[in-house]
């Protein structure tokens, strides 16, 4: 799906939204392995129509599959996805929160690229990342990017204040949320270390390019950051 999104110059949000559709669909309905490509194609078709100004038409999505599936099959899968999702196609994604947080922080461009790369890596594994909220993945991506480049003095108080507001200023609840995000950032750090060895290489190669300052080639930190120190 990453390669298809790049080939048709679809936005990052289109890709993340399509994968959100796939995850939510599979949490409700099982399909055969042979139908996974059809599911992904139809999910991209829906998200492109929702996010893009000029989305590719259904014939282009059929050609993506090398005509493995027909136009009718893609449209029928589109109907099935929408039925299963109850036409709820407006979903917050990790990339949506990432853009919001980065806009607030105004970090150097290479940090933004690395945070985006780390956010992308979470698409490769359902476990453990499906257990975390999109907002958790987004903030962990940024903190790990900052940690990887050894940047100091980044003010994350806006995020701490958000957590406190959500949890009604309960210190115990804040501690629980920080612990959850610590496990997320540790899993993300492992993904960063072994990304070049993963069976799916599209994301790694995408972020090796000059467009993203080659951030995928940046050596990961020896240890994952302590999430808590950014909120003390």
Automatic annotation (TrEMBL):
SMART domains: CYCLIN, Cyclin_C
Residue intervals of the Cyclin-like domain: 1-83, 96-180
Keywords on record: Cell cycle, Cell division, Cyclin
Domain Cyclin C-terminal: 92-221
Record carries keyword tRNA processing: no
Superkingdom to which the source organism belongs: Eukaryota
GO molecular function, one term: cyclin-dependent protein serine/threonine kinase regulator activity
GO terms under biological process: cell division; mitotic cell cycle phase transition
UniProt xrefs under InterPro entries: Cyclin, Cyclin-like_dom, Cyclin-like_sf, Cyclin_A/B-like, Cyclin_C-dom, Cyclin_N
PANTHER family given in the database record: CYCLINS
Family recorded in the similarity comment: Belongs to the cyclin family.
Record-given protein name: Cyclin-A2-like protein
